[in-house]
Amino acid sequence: MQLSDAPPENTIAINMHRIIKSHLDNFSKSFGLTDLNEAEQFEMFVNYAVLTPKISTTFELGDVTTGDADDGIDGVAVIVDEELLVSEEDAESIFKSDRKNHDVEIVFVQAKRSDSFDLGDFLKFKESVQKFINADDYEVDDEVQNNANSIYDVCLRNVPKIRGGKPSITARFVTTGVYNEPEALEAARKKFERELKSVGYFSTIDVRFVGRDELTALWVSTYSGIQAQLPIFSNAPLPKIAGIEEAYLVVASAKDVVENLLVSDDGNLRTQVFEENVRSFLGSENPVNRSIAETLNDAKASTRFPVMNNGITIVSPDVRVQGNVLHLENYQIVNGCQTSNVLYENRKILSDRIMVNLKIVETSNEDVFAELVRATNSQSKIEENQFFSLRPIVKRVEQYFDSFEDQDGRLYFERRDRQFIGRDVPAVRVFSVHTAAKCVAAMFYHRPELAYRYPKQMYELIGEKMFSESNKECIFYCSSLALYRLHLLVSNGTIPQNMRKFKWHILALVRVIIAGEKMPELNSKKMDAYCQKVIDALSKHGATAVAPFKKAAAIVQSMGDISSDRLKRQTVLDEMLKKIK
């Protein structure tokens, strides 16, 4: 079939379905993307909806969304152990460890605002994906695609350290229409899957068309809580415990646990319920996990599972026991990730006779929550950098953010993932521990290149320094406020849209422009006054807030064409700082 030479979709006026349009407008406003045209907004909207369930941490939409020069792919992500990789250097860092069971998934997205599923568009998408995975010397005009391909190459060079020896691949072709499985499109989809299988690179291949109902469900799941009901065999309430509303020891069918708590509506594992479990799944080859699987597969031994296994610890802000049914909302599995994953992987052989122990804790206290996460994950060695979000300074930073309640510069510090879900807080005002750390690295440690492309190295190199107990909390708020203000200025067109790419460098420039190059020690009392200069300048919209960003943007523009490779080097910031007068 000949592919059409139709004009780019972002040049076409399309009357989008009203429900999708409403969700898109809400997304664009919440994320500060109102400066983009509708086609660009929709691409980011779809990428966010598709990728959020697969990535356990916050991620930059610009790292996964292609630009005008893409060749048929609107979104691409390389995900390792539920974490988005943004540079080949970080990929190489992950595979340097001794671990040999990394989960790797390559995700491709094509987003069309139209309400039809065009075969020509799908074939173009297919052709682009095949080029990405097969080309020996891959190079296209889009930077995001080239960067993702370099990460993909690192993964292929390290297949002995990937679970099953191969990554998995997911492709989603999304429109605002209703997919009724027309014969021609289904034939093309199945042929695409067969061709991907024939390459021999992938363990799992998942190609799907996504219509407006599925897209709506994906989007709603990103901001709505999780609810579950679990039939239980027995339960014993624990005595009153300080900071905990209720706690129960529960015995339930392993089969029910998997079907009711661990599996989402699409049949996949609910990865978001493990966001607070600092120990990711170690794989079925792990000796302990292999032993768990062997027990489950042994008819006699499997009945002894609840006395041979430590079980699963679940924390929820809302727990109710009604009769023999346990009701949970927005729950997190803070311990038992290995058990949960092995149960999921062996779900087809689970009988009603296999039971599992559950420890259910209801608390809304973030401090208690953090203590539970640390305590229940301390039995075996965990890399300390995985505990940064539990450091005492993080609690103080949250309190500092909260001290700006009812002020124009009010931001929300997210100590726990999805903490502000359902509270009608714009996403652009919410800063996770990870995002705030990148802001501090860029603004106060003069390492924007780490925030830009080397987040793993950021924690290795300066993580201990950033989260030092002696540091002033203001550095986290001050740098986050600068990024928030930059997002708004780009969104309303005051600052050119292409400045998003240089945001981490702009943070460092703005600090020097407002408060001066000479900076006190981060644990010094003088740092409060230093940060306050920046906070005073940026808290309210107006000329005072706009001027430093315009000056910083002018400096960036004066540097000429800055390639991504140059942005990865620390020397670029030094060159920019010399231009401040």
Q: Layout of SSEs?
A:
Layout: H1 18-30, H2 38-51, E1 75-80, E2 83-84, H3 88-95, E3 104-111, H4 119-134, H5 143-157, E4 168-174, H6 183-199, E5 205-210, H7 212-223, E6 227-231, E7 234-237, E8 246-253, H8 254-262, H9 287-296, H10 305-308, E9 312-316, E10 318-322, E11 325-329, E12 332-335, H11 337-345, E13 355-362, H12 366-376, H13 392-402, E14 412-414, E15 430-432, H14 433-444, H15 448-453, H16 455-466, H17 474-491, H18 503-515, H19 526-538, H20 543-558, H21 564-567, H22 571-577
Domain Abortive phage infection protein C-terminal: 274-517
Pfam families: AIPR (PF10592)
InterPro entries: AIPR_C (IPR018891)
Architecture overview:
Residues 274-517 form the Abortive phage infection protein C-terminal domain. InterPro entries: AIPR_C (IPR018891). This is Regulator of sigma D. The chain is an alpha/beta fold. 43% of the residues lie in helices and 14% in strands. It has 22 helices and 15 strands. The strands form four sheets. Strands 2-1-3-4-5 form a five-stranded mixed sheet, sandwiched between helices. A hairpin with a 2-residue loop joins strand 1 (75-80) and strand 2 (83-84). Helix 4 packs parallel to helix 6 and helix 9 (287-296) packs across helix 11. The longest helix has 18 residues, at 474-491.
